[in-house]
Specification:
Layout (H helix, E strand, L loop, with lengths): L2 H14 L7 E5 L7 H6 L3 E6 L2 H10 L4 E4 L14 E4 L1
Parallel strand pairs: 1-2, 1-4, 2-3
């Protein structure tokens, strides 16, 4: 995906979920961290979940500051953490 599109998405997410009110974000279906990484670099505490362990390993190698969990989205209710916002892109 072109960098300009990702930058636009991140700017929109930051406007919808301001860091000061929504510091803990859940990225559902995070894949290789296309959104998780940039949000994490802005200061958000991002947890990315995905069913693909290979994708999560790739994301972790690119953005180690975020937390990654191998989990099918239908089991989100079993997570013990709380979040201030969630996204599914």
């Amino acid at each position: 995906m072109p960098a300009a599109i990702i930058e636009t998405e991140i700017a929109a997410l930051a406007a919808i979920l301001p860091l000061e009110r929504h510091p803990r974000i859940l990225d559902i279906g995070c894949g290789i961290g296309r959104i998780t990484g940039p949000l994490s670099s802005l200061g958000y505490a991002v947890t990315g979940i995905d069913i693909s362990v290979a994708a999560l390993l790739s994301a972790k190698s690119r953005v180690p500051a975020a937390r990654y969990v191998a989990l099918d989205q239908e089991h989100i209710g079993r997570m013990r953490w709380q979040f201030d916002g969630a996204l599914f892109m």
